[in-house]
Amino acid sequence: MTTNILMPSSMADGTLARWLRDVGDGVEVGDVIAEVETDKAMMQIEAPCKGVLVEIKVPEGSANLPADTLLAVLAD
Fold first, then answer.
1. pTM value?
2. Domain count, the chain
3. What's 53's domain CATH number?
């Protein structure tokens, strides 16, 4: 089973500042996997479930990402 990691729906848009995990890394619920920057704040994207980061869809530095953009995929 896979789980999509999305830009927070509460954001108008943002920049994917950096990935804190690499493809192949295991994650636990709540692990911070990425940082997203808005014009007002830096937000952390947490893993919603335990799994392995199997695909990164958006490279670091990508800007003007709207809410609900697919960032990455976790698999259990």
1. 0.91
2. 1
3. 2.40.50.100
